[in-house]
Amino acid sequence: MTLMSKLVTAAEMKHYDQFTIQTIGIPSLVLMERASLAVRDVILHDYPDAQQISIVTGSGNNGGDGLCLGRLLQIAGKHVTIIEVGNPAHRSEEHLAQAHICDYYHIPQVTSLASLATADLIVDAIFGIGIDREVKASYATTIEAINTAAAPVIAVDVPSGINTDTGAVMGVAVKADSTVTFAFNKVGLTTKNGQQYAGRVIVADDMGTYEN
Ligand SMILES: NC(=O)C1=CN([C@@H]2O[C@H](COP(=O)(O)OP(=O)(O)OC[C@H]3O[C@@H](n4cnc5c(N)ncnc54)[C@H](O)[C@@H]3O)[C@@H](O)[C@H]2O)[C@@H](O)CC1
Ligand SMILES: [K+]
């Protein structure tokens, strides 16, 4: 039995997530909660004065992390706006669960990018390790709006638009001040280009995933 502690690719991280969920038996939503708690802690520590926080979410589990984080930050007394830019028809199961919880907490979930201009802090939760093609159309416009906004940006897991394995920009990518990545650092974030887009990288929530 080996304690895994290394750089991983997207495929390896997905494998470990599946192993943790299916073999160890830790539910996916528990992993999501732990990941989001880690991002919340970094935000409360690094940006204690940020009151207006805009969280930009895609339709997958990276967006689910963003929604979960929105709830945690609202409970911590922050004014949170969720900007949903993903395709509603493609929302993951966990994303849908988190959106339902956000409804209960009356957290605004909008599609307008307007709040980016008045935000004290922007959270990028559009794409994580699931990005699999060039960023185009409204996603590209959204990422450009994040990059031109005045507020600092914290990326969830991987800056959206950065290839997890190579650090290459897949069309356009979020330029983050910090990136909180989960369990293991990702190969792409250690490349010169990846470092420039990720900013300070914090590796959080190492579950101590074991494999025989
Ligand atoms: N249980 C889990 O699987 C966990 C996942 N976590 C989070 O989930 C992320 C991975 O989630 P997913 O596998 O759902 O993937 P992502 O949420 O990274 O993205 C997948 C979605 O984006 C779409 N997409 C990919 N590239 C696109 C492009 N260029 N333009 C438009 N749409 C595009 C896909 O079709 C899919 O709908 C991780 O990075 C991490 O943030 C964490 O919550 C920890 C637990
Ligand atoms: K992201």
What does this structure look like?
The protein has 212 residues and is α/β, with parallel strands linked by helices. Helix content is 38%, strand content 17%. A seven-stranded parallel sheet has the order 4-3-2-5-6-7-8. It has a two-stranded antiparallel ribbon with strand order 1-9. Helix 3 packs parallel to helix 4. It is globular, with a radius of gyration of 16 Å. Ligand NAX is lined by residues 17, 21, 28, 31-32, 35, 58-63, 65, 90, 92, 127-135, 139, 156-157, 182. Keywords: Isomerase, Metal-binding, NAD, NADP, Nucleotide-binding, Potassium. This is NAD(P)H-hydrate epimerase. It comes from Paucilactobacillus vaccinostercus DSM 20634.
Order of SSEs, N→C?
A: EHHEHEHEEHEEHEE
* Low-pLDDT runs: none
Rg from alpha-carbon coordinates: 16 Å
Q: What value does the average pLDDT take?
A: 95
Instruction: Give the count of structural domains.
Output: 1
Give the ligands present. Answer: ligand NAX, potassium ion
Under the CATH scheme, the architecture is 3-Layer(aba) Sandwich
| Widest sheet: strand ordering | 4-3-2-5-6-7-8
Shape: globular
End-to-end Cα distance, whole Å, is 5 Å
Strand count, sense and barrel status of the largest sheet are:
7 strands, parallel
Number of helices: 6
Number of strands: 9
State the CATH topology: Rossmann fold
Strand content: 15-25%
